[in-house]
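Ops channel
N.P.: pipeline sanity check, posting one input/output pair.
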């Protein structure tokens, strides 16, 4: 079906709905000129300039463009040969280097990092595969039973769960492969004069991940919707289509949980172990090849900061879209398919916007000196947000009817909405995300007062550094929470809970750019590690450190975006859960919303607030246990091979032993916290009923947001305070590297590692996963004694 959408004016019928009119079309110069004929309820429009388009064309076109652009960026990176003398126009890995020993060392380090990351992800994803297999059967059985043995809904939900989980695995694995492939090439590029080549290499590595993940995610989601539409062709049946699709979000988020927790434990166990023994005890530099844990540390950057984060943000996209589709499924009855899939269209438009803005960093305003690096990354976020505003308005005007109906989440009424209202909700989310990102930068960048104060606090030791850092994290939560509150109030007032879901989509509308910047950081970090281990010239490490410092700040900004979007996504999923229970109970339950003063609801509200703290405690302790093993192993090697600490050691450390410790510890420790998050809402719903689940979800959301923001920002601030001290000269007040002030900063950074890279980011998934799991099993919960649960309290 092809819609003829008029750019200049609209045809309106007696119900004030945009209509499709019969036209006599003349194709001229690539444009379609249409003369609209008046019908008996239509206004005479006259001559219009029209374009032929559908939502499917835009969505699938954007997905294809995103994946094609990712391939192009990868090919540009692949042109850079791994050759220590620098970069030539020739292609290939290694050929004819003037410094063959250094080149061999580069390839050796690159291969070790690649093999370590590959072996860990293979082991992790094997566990995930068994989980997918078992849990898909659980979903099929429970959904079928909860829908009075509707096997089609059970099967479709299981299939979408499997597709979401596999797409998440593919996203994480792809990110790891690209990051490992690119980090050594960033090191080689840093040997060249100037900043443009090395920055562009790392930036393009991020772009491969960002655009491939967005394109793949949108493609898989939309094709799944079109397949389900064959079974549910009528607008009245699309509510079942969207309910089956929620399995896609659950699959993505489940794998993200294991990826974030497992990868986070791996990377921080190695990082903490390497820092404590290497820098604090023996005073050797970061990433020094004499440190046995240094390869494991660099492997961890790829499996935690890249693969885990890719799965996390894919999960956010999938869940936000599923929540918006469930809440907006009633729009299909009045506005048609294109109107119902508007949330997917927004994400598709985001790919076009992010692609255009990427030229600013690489070509229009390239990086020429060190101070340009941070501004280039920040301009990406600001420019994409600004450009999304007119792009979303245009999409809303084209694909939404002049008026459309939406079923209220609270009460039994119907809202009549217009395109500008939906557009405003998306814009509020996008602008709110940018504000939260910039506030996060203020609290975590050493360009501003908070981190410089934190660095000064190290003058009196590690204890004052810890006190200042924790206080900074708590303080940094104030403005983001107020922004979130304003976005929720504004979007809910305008478009009910559907508006909150659209605001979450707005937060993630420039996801391709957000992922680009997030992956950029770990690639630069690895590039610096490789430069240190390969013993390249000091200026190479200085250059990669400058790139990495900007990456640390933008990574913190990315985490701010992720936390804000997760809060809105989980609230939207909660609204979708309430809607499904209302539909299942025929308005017998939650007809007037959720009453928090109901005893069972309030009791589980408090329990829900405890869940994030229990989760953070489990993951923090897991890092501590694994780090202790790592410290003992590194110290054992230093004791047994004392010549390792010589300036020019004659012995080589056993890197594989440290990799094995991180792998074993992370795979073992990721299961308990993941199981707690998955089974808590499931068992609560089955045994205590839907009132208990509603309290659990709200309590978990409120506590997770505050804790995630404070932990992530404390960790980011400690990291950059350490880097700020390292940049200082020995004659300055901060004394620079190797001083007691620096050692105090390293302790803070070590504590901050699991804050910002394990527990903090994984709390995003806690609130999202609990909410989406409750949404998927909503019918099952209601089928258990009419929503009262087994115990019928």
């Amino acid at each position: 079906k092809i819609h003829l959408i008029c750019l200049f004016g609209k045809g309106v019928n007696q119900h004030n709905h945009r209509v499709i009119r019969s036209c006599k079309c003349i194709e001229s110069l690539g444009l379609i000129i249409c003369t609209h004929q008046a019908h008996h309820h239509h206004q005479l429009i006259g001559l219009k300039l029209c374009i032929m388009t559908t939502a499917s064309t835009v969505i699938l076109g954007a997905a294809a463009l995103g994946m094609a652009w990712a391939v192009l960026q990868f090919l540009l990176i692949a042109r850079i040969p791994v050759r220590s003398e620098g970069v030539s126009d020739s292609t290939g890995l290694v050929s004819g280097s003037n410094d063959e020993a250094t080149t061999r060392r580069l390839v050796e380090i690159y291969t070790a990092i690649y093999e370590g990351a590959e072996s860990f992800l293979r082991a992790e994803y094997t566990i995930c595969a068994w989980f997918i297999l078992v849990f898909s059967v659980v979903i099929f059985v429970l959904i079928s039973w909860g829908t009075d043995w509707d096997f089609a809904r059970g099967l479709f939900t299981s299939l979408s769960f499997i597709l979401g989980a596999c797409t998440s695995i593919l996203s994480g694995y792809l990110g790891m492969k690209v990051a490992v492939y690119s980090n050594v090439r960033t090191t080689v590029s840093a040997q060249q004069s100037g900043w443009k080549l090395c920055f562009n290499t790392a930036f393009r590595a991020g772009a491969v991940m960002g655009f491939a993940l967005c394109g793949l995610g949108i493609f898989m989601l939309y094709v799944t919707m079109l397949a389900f539409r064959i079974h549910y062709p009528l607008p009245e049946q699309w509510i079942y289509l969207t309910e089956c699709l929620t399995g896609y979000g659950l699959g993505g988020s489940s794998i993200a949980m294991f990826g974030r927790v497992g990868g986070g434990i791996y990377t921080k166990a190695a990082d903490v172990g390497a820092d404590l023994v290497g820098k604090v005890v023996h005073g050797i530099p970061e990433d020094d090849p004499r440190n046995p844990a240094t390869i494991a540390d660099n492997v961890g950057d790829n499996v935690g900061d890249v693969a885990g984060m890719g799965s996390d943000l894919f999960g956010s996209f999938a869940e936000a879209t599923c929540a918006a589709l469930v809440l907006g499924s009633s729009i299909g009855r009045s506005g048609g398919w294109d109107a119902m899939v508007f949330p997917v269209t927004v994400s598709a438009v985001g790919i076009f916007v992010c692609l255009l803005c990427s030229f600013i960093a690489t070509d229009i305003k390239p990086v020429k000196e060190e101070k340009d690096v941070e501004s280039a990354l920040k301009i990406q976020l600001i420019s994409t947000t600004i450009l999304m505003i007119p792009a979303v308005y245009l999409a809303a005007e084209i694909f939404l009817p002049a008026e459309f109906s939406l079923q209220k989440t609270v009460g039994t009424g119907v809202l009549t909405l217009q395109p500008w209202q939906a557009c405003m909700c998306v814009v509020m989310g996008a602008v709110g995300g940018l504000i939260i990102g910039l506030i996060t930068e203020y609290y975590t960048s050493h360009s501003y007062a908070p981190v410089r104060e934190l660095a000064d606090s190290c003058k009196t030791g590690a204890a004052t550094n810890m006190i200042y850092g924790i206080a900074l994290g708590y303080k940094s939560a104030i403005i983001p929470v107020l922004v979130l509150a304003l976005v929720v109030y504004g979007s809910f007032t305008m478009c009910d809970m559907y508006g909150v879901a659209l605001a979450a989509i707005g937060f993630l509308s420039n996801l391709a750019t957000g992922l680009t910047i997030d992956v950029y950081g770990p690639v630069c970090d690895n590039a610096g590690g490789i430069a240190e281990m390969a013993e390249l010239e000091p200026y190479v490490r200085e250059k990669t450190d400058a790139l990495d410092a900007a990456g640390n700040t933008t990574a913190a900004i990315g985490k701010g975006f992720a936390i804000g979007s997760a809060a809105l996504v989980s609230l939207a999923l909660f609204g979708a859960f309430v809607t499904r229970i209302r539909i299942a109970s025929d308005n017998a339950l939650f007809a007037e919303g959720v009453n928090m003063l109901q005893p069972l609801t309030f009791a589980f509200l408090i329990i829900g607030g405890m869940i994030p703290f229990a989760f953070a405690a489990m993951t923090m302790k897991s890092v501590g246990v694994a780090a202790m093993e790592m410290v003992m192993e590194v110290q054992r090697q230093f004791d047994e091979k004392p010549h390792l600490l010589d300036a020019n050691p004659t012995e080589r450390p056993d890197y594989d032993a440290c990799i094995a410790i991180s792998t074993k510890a992370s795979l073992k420790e990721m299961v308990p916290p993941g199981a707690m998050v998955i089974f808590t809402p499931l068992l609560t719903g089955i045994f205590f009923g839907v009132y208990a689940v509603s309290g659990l979800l709200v309590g978990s959301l409120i506590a997770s947001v505050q804790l995630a923001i404070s932990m992530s920002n404390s960790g980011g601030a400690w990291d950059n305070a350490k880097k700020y001290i390292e940049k200082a000269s020995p004659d300055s007040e901060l004394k620079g590297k190797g001083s007691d002030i620096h050692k105090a900063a390293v302790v803070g950074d070590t504590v901050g590692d699991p804050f910002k890279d394990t527990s903090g980011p994984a709390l995003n998934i806690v609130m999202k996963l609990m909410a989406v799991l409750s949404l998927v099993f909503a019918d099952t919960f209601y089928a258990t004694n009419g929503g009262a649960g087994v115990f019928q309290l």
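N.P.: looks fine end to end. Residues 100-146 form the longest helix (47 residues).
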